[in-house]
Amino acid sequence: MIVYHVAITAAADYATRREAYRRSHIERLQGLRAAGILICGGPAPDGKTADIFYRLQQPGQLKNAIEEDPYWTGGVWTRYEPRSFAQFVEPWEMVPVVLDGSRKVTIVEGPVTDHAMAQFALIEMRGAGRVGFGGFFEDGQTLALVKSADPVEALRWFGESGFWKPAELAARPLLHVL
């Protein structure tokens, strides 16, 4: 299996454009999740971007996963950039769908100082309930979904481990829909 993080760019009029497609978009994503293809997804609070995580068998499946989505065909999404994880720490649970924007989390990204130890630290943070999932890309960068709406707290957890470069870490908000 290949796990992809896909960074989505939304149309400038995302908030109004999405309404006609939202129900079919959510239903499709729920179907992909039930099939084990979708791990998680959600928009940034401002609606300008979204992050979606897919688990696929073949790289060629990614185009269909994105471009058959009603948000893509309806012009709600305008661009996407996929990256495949070299190593991925799976989530322990599939959270229920929350559409009201109340489940706020933080995406943390950045380079590691010690890859092997960072992998253990990421697993420990998941076990402690701080991280939902995450992983490492070929270039040594990390991306993790942190179960805190506070970016300062999320960055502190990574910095305290000693296995990431705190000054080079970035945190951004995400509304964890599913």
Write a brief structural summary.
The protein is an alpha+beta fold.
Please explain how this structure is put together.
With 178 residues, this protein is α+β, with helices and mostly antiparallel strands. The protein has 2 domains: 2-84, Dimeric alpha+beta barrel (Alpha-Beta Plaits, 2-Layer Sandwich); 89-175, Lrp/AsnC effector binding domain/regulation of amino acid metabolism (RAM) domain (Alpha-Beta Plaits). It contains 6 helices and 9 strands. It has helices spanning 14-17, 22-34, 61-67, 70-73, 115-127, 151-161, and strands at residues 2-10, 38-43, 49-56, 77-84, 87-89, 104-111, 131-136, 141-146, 170-175. It has a 5-stranded antiparallel sheet, covered by helices on one side. Strands 2-3-1-4 form a 4-stranded antiparallel sheet. The longest helix has 13 residues, at 22-34. The two termini are 20 Å apart. The relative contact order is 0.20.
What is the element layout, followed by pairings?
Layout: E1 2-10, H1 14-17, H2 22-34, E2 38-43, E3 49-56, H3 61-67, H4 70-73, E4 77-84, E5 87-89, E6 104-111, H5 115-127, E7 131-136, E8 141-146, H6 151-161, E9 170-175
Antiparallel strand pairs: 1-3, 1-4, 2-3, 5-7, 6-8, 6-9, 7-8
Over all CA atoms, what is the radius of gyration?
16 Å
How many separate helices?
6
- Count of DSSP E strands? 9
Euclidean distance between termini CA atoms: 20 Å
SSE string, helices as H and strands as E: EHHEEHHEEEHEEHE
- Outline the biggest β-sheet: 5 strands, antiparallel
According to CATH, what is the topology of the largest domain?
A: Alpha-Beta Plaits
Overall body shape: globular
Q: How many domains?
A: 2
Helix content, binned percent: 25-40%
